[in-house]
Design a protein that fits this description.
There is one protein chain. The strands form 2 sheets. Strands 4-3-5 form a 3-stranded mixed sheet. It has 2 domains: 89 residues, Arc Repressor Mutant, subunit A (Orthogonal Bundle); 60 residues, 2-Layer Sandwich (Dna Ligase, domain 1), CATH 3.30.1490.190. The chain is built from 6 helices and 5 strands; from the N terminus they run H-H-H-H-E-E-E-E-H-E-H. Helix content is 42%, strand content 15%. The chain is an alpha+beta fold. Bound molecules: zinc ion (3 copies). One zinc ion (ZN) binds next to helix 6. The site of one zinc ion (ZN) has 6 residues, from loops.
Length: 175
């Protein structure tokens, strides 16, 4: 099976204008909620903003702390509810292996397979999506009489800078 990706993956470790990542996530949320009629309350929006501000998945308590650091006292239950909402709307994903959440980094259909490339060292997480893989896996699951709850693949490994770092200054580049 060849993995057909729907778009070239963004490399979040590369230099980029990070404010665009946050702005895009919020714009997509406004659009998506406008279409579905779901309410993007100030808290839900704020939680998404904090998530989108990190390319490393954040745990619920980390989120509560970050909100607290900017003077917002938010009960953990409210943050959990906001996260449930964001995940339900496809605006954020749960990264099971890290027990954490990340803002959805790209536009994709709800039944596409989402692949997370997760760095062991720095936690940097890149999201890929594949429609073709989603279709193939859905077919394979159906053939096995299985009803999947989610179509998420988490792949641990090393991001480019961490791989470089592990190789050490002696290897690779001659300086
Ligand atoms: Zn970014
Ligand atoms: Zn996504
Ligand atoms: Zn890394």
């Amino acid at each position: 099976m060849t993995i057909q990706l729907d778009a070239t993956p963004k490399a979040p470790h590369a230099e980029h204008d990070h404010s665009i990542c946050v702005a895009e996530a919020l714009a997509r949320a406004e659009l998506c909620c406008g279409e579905s009629g779901a309410r993007l309350t100030p808290l839900r929006r704020r939680v998404l903003e904090v998530l989108a501000d990190s390319h490393v998945p954040l745990g619920a308590y980390e989120l509560v702390e970050r909100l607290g650091a900017s003077g917002e006292k938010t009960p953990p239950m409210s943050v959990y509810r906001a996260l449930d909402f964001l995940v339900g709307e496809g605006l954020a994903h749960r990264v099971e292996s890290r027990n954490a959440y990340i803002a959805c980094g790209r536009e994709h259909a709800a039944d596409d397979v989402v692949v997370f490339l997760i760095c062991d060292d720095c936690g940097l997480t890149t999201e890929l999506a594949s429609h073709a893989m989603g279709r193939d896996l859905a077919w394979a699951a159906r053939s096995a009489g299985f009803s999947p709850r989610a179509s998420v693949v988490e792949i641990p490994g090393l991001c480019a800078p961490c791989a470089e770092h592990r190789r050490g200054p002696a290897a690779g580049k001659d300086r």
